[in-house]
């Protein structure tokens, strides 16, 4: 019975961990490149996976539209302090230091079931804005940084992760592509994480849609300066 309970706890945590690691944020194109296998199409969201050579963890991709202008979606993605409002398992999210107007190092604490150690991540986040194409990319990867707090949490590692946003021709909706390749470290078996890959992209886009619809993210002055009305 204990083994079954531990498995359920690991399963319950696998998807929220992937979601939390991503939405904070592989440079990607609008179309999936070679190696991606579509595993789900539902509610206008396409979910894909890709085997990464040398890694026991697969990369995940979620793609779909959000019914809001580009700026509204972008505001949510760069609103670090409020990630706890909509991302599963995120207990704390904050910027450790600012590198530039479009780059920062951030810290996230991720809660887990009682039988598991909490996770954390320290990552470099870069925001790239292409006003001519009405597009924005958030790229993220794990780093070591002296400003990171000293804790007993397990430090997860993001190899590459990104969100790519592009305004649709109607100007009222945004096409979103999210990708991640991460290692949660610790005692979570790779097969458990990979087993629930089907839900990752779907849950990420679904949660993003809900948060954008709330309209609670503060307007980001830099995004408005670079993108105008989006």
Explained architecture:
This protein has one domain (about 1-225): Alpha-D-Glucose-1,6-Bisphosphate, Chain A, domain 4, CATH 3.30.530.20. Strands 1, 2, 3, 4, 5, 6, 7, 8, 9 and 10 form a ten-stranded mixed beta sheet that branches. It is α+β, with helices and mostly antiparallel strands and about 230 residues long. The chain is globular and about 45 Å long. The chain contains five helices and ten strands. The relative contact order is 0.26.
Please, what is the average pLDDT? 84
Amount of helix: 25-40%
Radius of gyration: 17 Å
The CATH class name reads: Alpha Beta
Features:
alpha+beta; 5 helices; Alpha-D-Glucose-1,6-Bisphosphate, Chain A, domain 4; 230 residues; single chain; disordered N terminus; ten-stranded mixed β-sheet; 10 strands
Summarize the structure.
This protein has helices spanning 2-23, 70-77, 190-195, 197-214, 221-227; strands spanning 37-42, 45-50, 59-66, 90-100, 103-110, 119-130, 135-142, 154-155, 157-167, 174-183. It has 230 residues and is an alpha+beta fold. The termini are far apart.
Sequence-ordered SSE layout with sheet pairings:
Elements lengths: L1 H22 L13 E6 L2 E6 L8 E8 L3 H8 L12 E11 L2 E8 L8 E12 L4 E8 L11 E2 L1 E11 L6 E10 L6 H6 L1 H18 L6 H7 L3
Parallel strand pairs: 6-8
Antiparallel strand pairs: 1-2, 2-3, 3-10, 4-5, 5-6, 6-7, 7-9, 9-10
Helix pairs in contact: 1-4
